[in-house]
Predict the structure.
Amino acid sequence: MGGDTLPGEAFLSEKIPFYSALAPAIPTKLPIEARDGGIYQGFLLTWLYLGAIKRARAKSLPRAWILIALMLFVVAMAADGVNALLYDLQFYNGLENIPHLYVPTLQLRLVTGLTTGIAFAGILLPIANYFLWRADDARPLFENAKHFLGALAVGGIFGLLVNSEMGLFYYPIAIFSAASVVSLLSIINAVFLLSVFGKTAYATTWRAALNPLAAGACATVIELAALSLMRYTLLGTATLP
């Protein structure tokens, strides 16, 4: 992202001190690859959206037809990933004739990642809510088309912002991407810790939920640090293709 400007952005950059510092002057990569980033971003966007419509603590899986759609999102991402692998293999000697369905694009990687992130939220959050919340909120996470399409709309708007490649959005999207990684892994770790220590149905308020979520966040930081150290030990500062 970066390099492109919004209408009027040049004027603002000229008139407002430090405005230009908010947007990279040259194209800059986001910290996470499109598909991987889309998964984490889609999850956090959906969680925030569910909080906005007062369904973030629902403990039941989405309606059957919505659950099927979510599973198809995951299948679509897997199919796009396989096609991308087959496409990449043709650039290796002796593998030039491996067939593939289409030329992969970053836009499609982002879309399949975002929809898979929505699917992860739809399936994982009811499980996390079962372990985390004491109140028996038996409502489906997505109860109707309105709830489901709302999540897709939020993901779609975010995808358009990323695809715009406007430098002004770089830092907000980059920070949100990092936060989305921590949020998803923290919830998974929190559920694991609650189950290990037998603390199911632990919280009655968000303040009470901070303890297991903070523990999950600490575990996430340790895991990410260990992975970073392992990568540095094996590859140093080399950039992966």
